[in-house]
Design brief:
There is one protein chain. By secondary structure, the protein is an alpha/beta fold. It has three domains: 92 residues, Translation factors (Elongation Factor Tu (Ef-tu), domain 3); 129 residues, Nucleotide-binding domain of ferredoxin-NADP reductase (FNR) module (Rossmann fold), CATH 3.40.50.80; 91 residues, Ubiquitin-like (UB roll). The structure holds flavin-adenine dinucleotide (FAD) and FE2/S2 (inorganic) cluster. The site of flavin-adenine dinucleotide has 25 residues, from strand 4, strand 5 and helix 1. The site of FE2/S2 (inorganic) cluster has 13 residues, from loops.
Length: 356
């Protein structure tokens, strides 16, 4: 099973000075069916090292276009290359869409959704906004969008167009950290205090059925806390994280449960095949798979994206970081293999069960 597919870059435009919006045409369109809020994982070799990075789709399904927005990160390998060297006509290697940011709950005439986005965190939220407004004649969306200043607002024109087209159904609040606005509340950082003020004066949380949050981790935590304090249930809050607090690349020692320190038995199911080998206790399940030339899926290697998800069907393991799986998935035995280490002397894990 080829995990990566070839796509051609058909358009690139700058949404702001530090970000590009890239339109992609897949050779195999069937492999690129998506739901709102999903992301694509790109693979490219830089200086002999294969790098994988994920970027969220910013279009809605009905747009019939595959687009991602890539904001340049200072010193960042892939995002800097995409912003300076990527050209129309280039071919890229991309995985099929993944992720489950979108709740998928049906829209009714009364649906009121809320979104909080920070910087490039707007990309998956924009896909959900477009979908909501197109799929229902009455559903409403309120977006709170945090940026440093007006020049760093990605998709500013697109958002303005949407606001003009759906005047009574789309409400956008721009919060600018470094730029004063007519209303004081709209200046500064989005923290718990600002959220509470927004909920008191601008956004009636009682009408909100679901809130989507995507942005820097501390901002996401503050917003989630404020939402809960102001009456929203945990189950009504959905997150998409772009980066973990720790890179997750280093091998981590895991407390032994009395078994041997190395040479433990591993068995992996992938693409309908079963492979057995021995592995060390301080090696993640993903790394052990890759070391044994298995083409196991991965992207961030930081417990963020869930591309490396598998089900542990035998043995005991420990997951060090989990920003992607729900509690019920962990209870059912699913793990992020990039963050998962063996505790017992035999571990069996199945990537195929995580794909169905
Ligand atoms: C599910 C998901 C969806 C995403 N969607 C989007 C999106 O829609 N748009 C978007 O713009 N981004 C998105 N991201 C983030 C994106 O995947 C990348 O993480 C981001 O573009 C940075 O990648 P990079 O290769 O440019 O930077 P990297 O090379 O990974 O560097 C990241 C940072 O680490 C620093 N760094 C790198 N190497 C070192 C080192 N050796 N020592 C110290 N510091 C170092 C860099 O200076 C930089 O600040 C998403 C991430 C995930 C997980
Ligand atoms: S590769 Fe992203 S969570 Fe494991």
């Amino acid at each position: 099973m080829a995990q990566f597919h070839s796509v051609t870059v058909t358009d690139i435009h700058k949404t702001i000075r530090e970000a590009v919006v890239v339109t992609l045409q897949p050779d195999n369109t069937a492999a690129f069916q998506f739901v709102p809020g999903q992301y694509l994982t790109f693979k490219r070799v830089f200086d002999g090292e294969e790098i994988r990075r994920s970027y969220s789709i910013c279009t809605a399904v009905h747009d019939r276009l595959l687009k991602v927005g890539i904001k340049r990160v200072d010193g960042g390998v892939f995002s800097s290359w995409a912003n300076t060297d990527l050209k129309v006509g280039d071919k890229l290697e991309v995985m099929s869409p993944m992720g489950k940011f979108y709740s998928g709950d049906g829209l009714t005439d009364d649906t009121h959704l809320l979104g909080f986005a920070g910087g490039s965190g707007i990309t998956p939220v924009l896909s959900i906004i477009r979908t909501t407004l197109a799929e229902s004649d009455h559903a409403r969306f309120t977006l709170v969008y945090a940026n440093r200043n007006v020049n760093t607002i990605m998709f500013r024109d697109e958002l303005e167009d949407l606001k003009n087209r759906f005047m009574h159904r789309l409400n956008i609040v721009h919060i600018l950290e470094d730029e004063s606005q007519d209303i004081d509340l709209f200046t500064g950082r989005v923290d718990a205090e600002k959220c509470s003020a927004l909920f008191n004066h601008w956004i009636d949380l009682r009408s909100v059925s679901c809130c989507y949050i995507c942005g820097p981790e501390p901002m996401m935590q503050a917003i989630a806390l404020a939402l809960e304090e102001n009456g929203l249930q945990k189950s009504q809050i959905r997150f998409e994280l772009f980066s973990g607090a720790q890179p997750g690349r280093a091998k981590k020692p895991v407390a032994s449960k009395g078994g041997s320190e190395e040479g433990l038995q591993a068995q992996v199911m992938l693409n309908g095949e079963t492979r057995s080998f021995t592995m060390k206790r301080d090696t993640s399940l993903l790394q052990a798979s890759l070391d044994n030339t298995l083409d196991a899926p991965y992207a961030c290697k930081a417990g963020v994206c869930s591309t490396c998800k598998a089900k542990v069907v035998e043995g005991e393991t420990e997951m060090l970081v989990n920003h992607a799986l729900e509690d019920y998935e962990v209870e059912a035995g699913y793990v992020l293999t990039c963050q998962c280490y063996p505790l017992s002397d035999k571990v069996v894990w199945d990537y195929d069960q995580a794909r169905h």
